[in-house]
Amino acid sequence: xxxxxRALTTVTLLLALLAFPSAQVSAQxxxxxxxxTTEFRTLADTRTAWPTREKFxxxxxxxxxxxxxxxxGTVVLGTCAGMVGxxxxxxxxxxVGDVVGHASLPGIAIAFIVMxxxxxxxxxxxxxxxxxxxxxxxxxxLCTVAIRRYTRIxxxxxxxxxxxxFFGVGIALFTxxxxxxxxxxxxxxxxIYGAAYAIVDTDVYVITGAATAAxxxxxxxxxxxxxxxxxxxxxxxxxxxxxxxxxAMMLLVVVVTVIGLQSVGLILVVxxxxxxxxxxxxxxxxxxxMTCISATLGGFSxxxxxxxxxxxxxxxxxxxxxxxxxxxxxxxxxxxxRRGVIRRAYVQWRLRGRVGRHHxxxxxxxxxxxxxxxxxxxxxxxxxxxxxxxQLLAMRSWSPVRLKRQLFIATLKRLVxxxxxxxxxxxxxxxxxxxxVVRNHRLWEMYLIxxxxxxxxxxxxxxxxxxxILDPELIQELNMRLSQEYPQxxxxxxxxxxxxxxxxxx
Amino acid sequence: MLTNTxxxxxxxxxxxxxxxxxxxxxxxxxxxxPSSSPLxxxxxxxxxxxxxxxxxIDYNAPRGKLVAIVGPNGAGKxxxxxxxxxxxxxxxxxxxxxxxxxxxxxxxxxxxxxxxSVDWDFPINALEVVMMxxxxxxxxxxxxxxxxxxxxxxxxxxxxxxxxxxxRRQISQLSGGQQQRVFLARALVQDxxxxxxxxxFAGVDAATERAIVDILRDLRxxxxxxxxxxxxxxxxxxxxxxxxxxxxxxxxxxxxxTTFTTENLRKTYGGKLALLDQVGHxxxxxxxxx
Lengths: 506, 290
What we know:
The structure holds two protein chains of two kinds. By secondary structure, chain A is mainly alpha-helical. Chain A folds into two domains: 64-274, ABC transporter involved in vitamin B12 uptake, BtuC (Orthogonal Bundle); 345-504, Orthogonal Bundle (Arc Repressor Mutant, subunit A). Helices cover 72% and strands 1% of the residues of chain A. Chain A has 21 helices and two strands. In chain A, α3 packs antiparallel against α12 (287-311). The relative contact order of chain A is 0.09. The radius of gyration of chain B is 19 Å and the shape is globular. Chain B has one domain: 3-Layer(aba) Sandwich (Rossmann fold), CATH 3.40.50.300. Residues 1-33 and 284-290 of chain B have low confidence and may be disordered. The interface between A and B is medium-sized, with 30 and 35 residues.
């Protein structure tokens, strides 16, 4: 039932939420008009409103002590995560970060309970909680490794199993904690969704220290990690301690995840690891550059995310960081200069244009070849023939619109000239172009007949599909065969009958 | 019957390779597994999930020869190579490279894995792949760019396989044959004495096939040994001096002229007679004449 009262309530609620900021803005301006006091909000403020100009400047110029520390901590974290994430992505272990994140929850809960039991009131001592998170994160990884090694369950299923079980245990323990009468447990939930504003300067020391250590390790073992990611088997035969390197890489992930728990939370921490790396892949084909770009994008999206959440205090920093990361990813996906969607479309478009041009030029050549009816065609033959649009149209099964467009482009490129009689003629440049196109086509046909066992009657179409992307090396090879096969002739004859109907038509 | 006790292996391992070679030059006839053999496999069995893949392989590779490893699909050719390199665990048996365990001789063995074994979309160029063959020599934690001489060596290896022009090309933009040649260059750059190649001719173009054959002949000329998993029976007599016919067990080994016979092939391939009859007429041609 779509129109149930319940659904309607939900929709109304959502709409109200969407309208909320603007509603606040109008209220705010009224207040200011009445009483012009400048009230600055801290990061812990949870009201939603558009920031005033003063507040904007204050945040952007980092005048707030808290903002500075939070920004530093998250940028370092984002940079480090981007770097480690590159290797995880290339090792096809994108989801390991997710497993570690979810698996850290029971560790946090147990650490809290233990510390609370030993010394009531000290349950939220951060290093203790992080050690708990680290331990259970490692336990989660060990479980995936063990399940994969000793059973035949596939990797994706293993990850799902471990992730959900650990998370389930964690949630159960959290429920128990809620019922502990100490009242100290408030804020523990921040580890689930993240709360960057809760970071204080001592936390930043921990984050920066761990992140720097991870960064140094990444730089030192760059070569070793790259060979491990590219070809594990080969790395083994070369005597690299593959298992140890793998463990080192996993530990890096655990460290990044654990120090990221506080700011982005365990559900979203995987985004910090993977999104910058995946985005960086669109920008480059070089591993080192990819790592640098990924680190930069990670740092950038974390920084902007934190600033945005400082401007809009009710927005959770973790989520905003991930949204910014997603935005950066989208931009990279479209505009990435190496593998971006637009770049690929452009390459495709150029290839299509080239293929179309090849077809037109081949139609010219083959028409003239049929019309001349001598053994060889001279360049003069090619440039002297005037061909009508209808004759060209009959050479191939193409639509008049397409042919017209191709002829227009060919005229622009000065391969073909349009005569006053509305016939078309090859220019000298066009004649040479046509000669090479046809030659490549025939070479390729010959190759297909000889090596791929394709019948001469079918070879034309097959050659058509691939000849435009011939490798120069292959052309050389084919040239060699050609000169062996036809020592006297420059241009091999077509292996199949050309359609004479076109020439017969005027 | 030799048993593979840990103490025995350890004492073998302690001897430096050169010394054991010199020792054995004097006492060669006595030793069951002459250390002069680039690769000696003794009584090796490999099993996946309790199903044996190769059984009781006993083999001594001849020095300075090109050896084709031939057998039907699933005969355990790849497994044999992987077991020799320690990539799959052996159920039993012992492998020695120039008279010492493989772990002591890694640098003397060049490995060319199957092309499909890696993701060619990796962000790396041809030269960097070849450089990987030198990472071990460069050593831990040292960045590659500090060593121009290794870069030069990698370029030289690429040149040998005819790929110098493609050094900066991202590997996904190479054709299958070119990728294969990059892998070959990575093994060559190591300047090993024994090469193990897993289907280097699979799905390659004519130019690559010629390049690989030339390289193989160069290797033989300089006294190196190559064991090559090969699937094209027609070219075996032309390219290789020795064959190793494998179908879970070792069917036959020896020089191509005497071993690569229709009868041995029949034993190796079982019922696939049509194929064998095709090969039969090739075998009647004298070797070296194509």
